[in-house]
Amino acid sequence: MKSYSIALIPGDGIGRDVTAAAWSVLETAAKQAGLALAATEFPWSCKFFKETGRMMPEDGVETLRGFDAILLGAVGWPAEVPDSVSLHGLLLPIRKAFVQYANIRPHRLLPGVTGPLRAESFDILCIRENTEGEYSGAGGRVHQGTLDEVAVETSIFTRAGVERILRYGFERARTRRGKLASVTKSNAQKYSMVFWDEITRKLAADYPDVAVTSYHVDALAARMIMAPESLDVVVASNLFGDILTDIGAAIQGGLGYAASANINPDRSAPSMFEPVHGSAPDIAHLGIANPIATIWSGAMMLDHLGETAAASRVMKAVEATTARGIGTTPGKDRTEAITAAVVASLT
């Protein structure tokens, strides 16, 4: 029997509920496929920060290194810990230490889910550069608290970083409908984004079977709303990808369906899988969080581990559940009811 060791980081708020829900689905699917999933749970969270002064222990990254994959719920509790602390104390260090440079977010409507657009037949795969760019953390503040205060935030774009994320996008486009949209703002950002455009054109010669279009980010944002069915694979920088995928979540019905994967493509370290939504402190005690985004992320985890049949089985169970109207209206179904329906659809 194949066995995989999975690090579970439920995190904060509804993260605990949706992680538990996804895990019950994944365990059932694994058992049906003759697999074993071994979970080790870590309490790293804003609560952990308040108790220890750190979002995770100093050796947290090395602790995670030995796992096959990481499943994360949600991190953040702004009323208790600033988001800048929680993000830079847990998620970003993991992504950077494990070179999870490809953030993958699928956007399509599940059966039974009504989106806000007239369009329904879109299937967009957003690929966001995940370790450098605008979220590099380079910069600082001087003369704080004075009228002369200055804040500098420097974006870092390396040839290696831009080329590898674009190549990843080209390769994924080859497995789909053969179209790639490269997103920049090169009319205004004449160094980093012109650099990105130049590398896109250079790499396009290596992929003559992929149709490449370069968009400015504002035009692409409009296209995702006005003509989402025209898009296939979208590749963008860390900041632009972050923003565009929230549009993607909106047009697919909301953050309750928005899954993501932080991928280390060469598999030299574990990849991490998580829903796009936050910890939602306002509903954390109500038991109505939609676990579908986390279950979908879990399916992406199984697929990354090479268990494509089990991953497909999970997604078919999710689709069967939403087709019955379960988990399609925010707040209508309890977390446990949605989970039970997905588990039942597996059997």
What is the topological layout?
Blueprint: E1 2-11, H1 15-32, E2 35-41, H2 46-52, H3 60-65, E3 69-74, H4 83-97, E4 102-108, E5 123-129, E6 133-142, E7 150-156, H5 159-175, E8 179-184, H6 192-204, E9 211-216, H7 217-226, E10 233-236, H8 238-251, E11 259-263, E12 271-275, H9 292-304, H10 308-323, H11 335-346
Parallel strand pairs: 1-2, 1-3, 3-12, 5-10, 8-9, 8-10
Antiparallel strand pairs: 4-5, 4-11, 6-7, 11-12
Helix pairs in contact: 1-9, 1-10, 1-11, 5-6, 7-8, 9-10, 10-11
Walkthrough of the structure:
It is built from eleven helices and twelve strands. With 347 residues, the protein is an alpha/beta fold. The strands form two sheets. Strands 2-1-3-12-11-4-5-10-8-9 form a ten-stranded mixed beta sheet, sandwiched between helices. A two-stranded antiparallel ribbon has the order 6-7. The longest helix has 18 residues, at 15-32. The chain is globular. 46% of the residues are buried. Keywords: Manganese, Metal-binding, NAD, Oxidoreductase. Its EC number is 1.1.1.93. It is an enzyme of class 1 (oxidoreductase). Its cofactor is Mg(2+); Mn(2+).
Quick overview:
GO terms for molecular function: tartrate dehydrogenase activity. The chain is an alpha/beta fold. Helix content is 41%, strand content 23%.
